[in-house]
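INTERNAL AUDIT FORM
Audit reference: QA-55
Scope: verify that the stored structure record matches its stored sequence.
Auditor: D.O.
Record contents follow.
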Amino acid sequence: MEKQYHVDFDDSHGALYAILPGDPGRVEKIASYLENPRFFHQNREYTAWLGEISGKTVMVISTGMGGPSTAIAVEELYKTGVRNFIRVGTCGGMALPVIGGDIVIATGAIRMEGTTKEYVPLEFPAIANLDVTNALVEAAKKFNLKWHAGIVQCKDSFYGQHDPNRMPVGFELNEKWEAWKKAGCLASEMESATLFIVSQILGARAGCVLNAVWNQEREKAGMSNPNCHDTEAAIKTAVEAVRILISR
């Protein structure tokens, strides 16, 4: 087949499984958890390494930040043969029990972004694949991690969340944020809804595991609010989940 336009490679990699960080700088670190890790390709925001888990080829490839580049990655990876996707990323906690350093496994996402509107109407939910989600939960339990599973908010604007009052639509942003909190939303991030919707439309399986960096609601409430930028726990969870999926 011809090389895909954005990722710039074809189906010769042979990977059915892909682990997707947003940040190209995290790809090599994640790949180091695989057997026989090696650099594969780099183009635009898409840096890719290959390795093995239980004898099967696994790709680690960055998606960049936000929905548009994530959708392109999933579309083109699917065309080259990938059928299973696990996002490994970071999030900010919203529910008070979510503390910096905790693991958040997204079972579904609030579609407060624009990319998926060009796939299906907003009434269609962005839901993670059950097999992948169960594998992530099993992996988190195996490592005795503090984890949460539930709905996350997926947004397009980082600063719309962190400085909403500066925005002309700040009233709407604040009102929706309060609604998501009251509904029990665990955390906020920027790629999960796109991953879930695009995978659903293609017929692929997708899941998402996130490291909670901090929780602004805990800070507002005067509660302890540790910051944690170490993504090792989320990475280990994703790699073990792939191992579980391969074994089944």
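Auditor finding: record pair retrieved intact. The longest strand covers residues 205-215.
Action required: none
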